[in-house]
Amino acid sequence: MKIVFLGSNDSSVEFLRELIKNEQVTAVVTRPDKPSGRGLEMHSSPVKIFSQKNNIPVLDLEQYKALPEKPGLAIAVAYGKILKKETFSFPVNGTINIHFSLLPKYRGASPMQWAIINGENTTGVTSFFIDEGLDTGNIILQKEVNIEEIDDFPALEKKMNNAGIAIMNESIELIKKSAVKYSKQSGTVTNAPPLKKSDGIIHWQEKTAVEVFNLIKGTRPWPGAHTALEEKEIFNLKIIDACPFKETEEIKNNTGSLSGEITALIKGRGFVVKCKESLLEIKNVQRENRKPMAAWDFWQGARMKIGDRFK
After folding, report:
1. Helix axes 10-22, 46-53, angle to 10 degrees
2. Does residue 307 lie in a domain region?
3. Which of 82, 128, 231, 258 is deepest in the core (most CB within 10 A)?
4. Which long-range contacts (CB under 8 A, 24 or more apart) does 190-193 make?
5. Which domain holds residue 147?
C-alpha cells in the first residue's frame, strides 16, 4: 500500500524513520521553509531535511492533491496544520493521525505539556481517522503511557514516540486487512492549546509547590517557567530545576510568609520559595540572555536576601 506521510518536527522524523523500514512511502508533505534566526535565513523542517537525505519526494499541499494516483493511506504526525476535507479524504483509505493523548482528553497542539502541567499520572497515544473537527475523528487504537514524577516534556515525548510508533504500525496492518473496528470518541473533552510564553508565568500565590514543579517540567524547554523579583532589576528569571521542599526543624514552612517570598537559603544548593501552602527548593535558574546556572551561584551574584519576593 502506497503511503504519504505528513509531518514537520523532530518527533515526526522518528515516525517517518520507522515507517520507511517496512512501508512504501511515496511522498512526504511538510510545512514550507520559513525564515528564522538573527539573519532570518530560510530553514527547512526536520522532516524535509530527513526526506531529502533519503530520496523521498517532498510536496506541498497543492502538489499532493494534484497527484495523478491517490495513495492508499496518509499518516499525519505533528504536521502542524488543520487539514481540509479535500486533503484528508484524498487517500483511498483516508488519513490517520497519531495524537499524543487519550482522546477526547487533551485535544489540540500541546497535549503532553498540558498533561504534565495538570499533574496527570497517566496519558497515552491515540490513532484516529481525521475528520473536519479538531482531533474529533473515530478512534482506531489507544495505548496508555505512565507519567513518572521525574518526567519533563522531553522525557515524556520519548516514551510517547515509542508508544505512538507501535500504534502506527498496528493501525496500518489493521487497515491493510480491512480489520479496523473503530469507535466514536466518548468521555470528558479537554483541550490542549498551543503553549504561549505567558503560560510559563509562575503564580506563586495560586499554586502549590507540586503545581509549580509540574509547570517547570511541562514548559521545559519552552516557554519555561519564569518569574521576576519585586523591586529588583531582574526580569524573566527562568526556573530551570526545582523540587517540592520537605521542611526541617531548621527551615519551617512559615505561615506568615507571603507567596513568592524567599524563606531560606540552603548553602551550596539553592534557596527556598514560599508557594501556596508549601515550599519549593530552587536548584537551577537562568536570567534573560544568560546561560543556566546553579541557584546558589545566582543567589550570591544577585545579592539576594531572605525575605526578597518573586512576583
Report:
1. 30
2. no
3. 128
4. 190/104, 190/105, 190/106, 190/107, 191/106, 191/107, 191/108, 192/101, 192/106, 192/107, 192/108, 192/109, 192/110, 192/111, 192/113, 192/114, 192/115, 193/108, 193/109, 193/110
5. 2-176
pLDDT tens per residue, range 131-145: 999 999 999 999 999
Q: Which of 150, 160, 165 is nearest to 123 (CA)?
A: 160
Mean residue pLDDT of the chain comes to: 94
Confidence of residue 303 (pLDDT cuts 50, 70, 90): confident
168 and 247 share one domain: no
Q: Is residue 184 part of a domain?
A: no
Average pLDDT of the segment spanning 8-34: 97
Residue 235 lies in a domain: yes
Find the largest Cα–Cα distance for the chain. Answer: 75
Q: 280 with 250, same domain?
A: yes
Number of domains in the chain: 2
- Confidence band of 253 (pLDDT split at 50, 70, 90): low
Select from 155, 147, 263 the least CA-distant residue to 209. 263
Q: What is the CATH number of the domain that holds 56?
A: 3.40.50.170
What length is written for the chain? Answer: 311
